[in-house]
Design brief:
There is one protein chain. Helices cover 69% and strands 0% of the residues. The chain is built from twelve helices and no strands. The longest helix is centred in the middle third of the chain and has 21 residues. The termini are far apart.
């Protein structure tokens, strides 16, 4: 990605100094002259973004605030992600990749649903961003590839269930399974299930619900 040029209002000499500092940080050097490792800097910005989203949600995310959180120049996030949409898209792509891995590790469809719920609980910031398409670059290759991998993993879990356990239409069965896992995870994260779930393990509660829907899916 090309680096963004910082702009500011003030004396030319001050602007030149600021621009030089911004370029140094954006290109992997701190304003004190100590080099950053590019991968570490990108990760630091992603981590700061995830922390902010977990508290305030993705809509109010600010690249300038993230730079402050990560301790880098305000040009650094733009250098790595170009803009807020690019940053959120990178988070969503990472999330779908993690989800795909989790789903593929499941032994059957019910456990795939459990992994889905577990992913949402362990990665709530990713989960929020992944399903906010209005905030993302829909045609981003990394995002579309990761999303396809997650969809394929769920589809494989569904088709592995015999027709008598899921119905003749595997596609609708997939929609049902996804709706159950996603709806449960969303309600759980928004504390709408605090009463019904109580002190019980949410994953065990989900297993019971999945058994109700796919009784012969073992």
């Amino acid at each position: 990605m090309s680096s963004s040029k910082a702009s500011g209002i003030g004396r030319a000499s001050g602007a030149d100094k600021a621009s030089g500092a911004d370029k140094a940080s954006a290109n992997g050097k701190s304003t004190t002259g100590r080099p950053y490792h590019h991968g570490d800097l990108r990760r630091a910005i992603l981590t700061a973004a995830l922390d902010a989203i977990a508290v305030d949600g993705p809509s109010g995310l600010s690249l300038r605030d993230l730079a402050r959180r990560a301790g880098v120049s305000h040009a650094a996030p733009a250098h790595h992600f170009k803009d807020r949409a690019g940053l959120l898209t990178a988070i969503a792509a990472e999330g779908f990749g993690l989800l795909a891995t989790a789903l593929r590790e499941a032994a059957d469809l019910k456990e795939a649903g459990v992994r889905y719920v577990r992913f949402a609980r362990e990665h709530p910031a990713h989960f929020q961003v992944m399903f906010a398409p209005e905030l993302l670059r829909a045609d981003d290759l990394e995002l579309t590839t990761a999303r396809a991998l997650a969809s394929d993993a769920l589809r494989e879990a569904v088709t592995a269930v015999p027709p008598e356990g899921r119905g003749a239409d595997a596609r609708l069965a997939g929609v049902a399974a996804w709706s159950l896992a996603h709806g449960f995870a969303t309600l759980l994260l928004s504390h709408n299930l605090d009463g019904p779930v109580g002190d019980r393990d949410p994953e065990e509660v989900f297993r019971v619900l999945a058994e109700m829907l796919f009784r012969r899916g073992e």
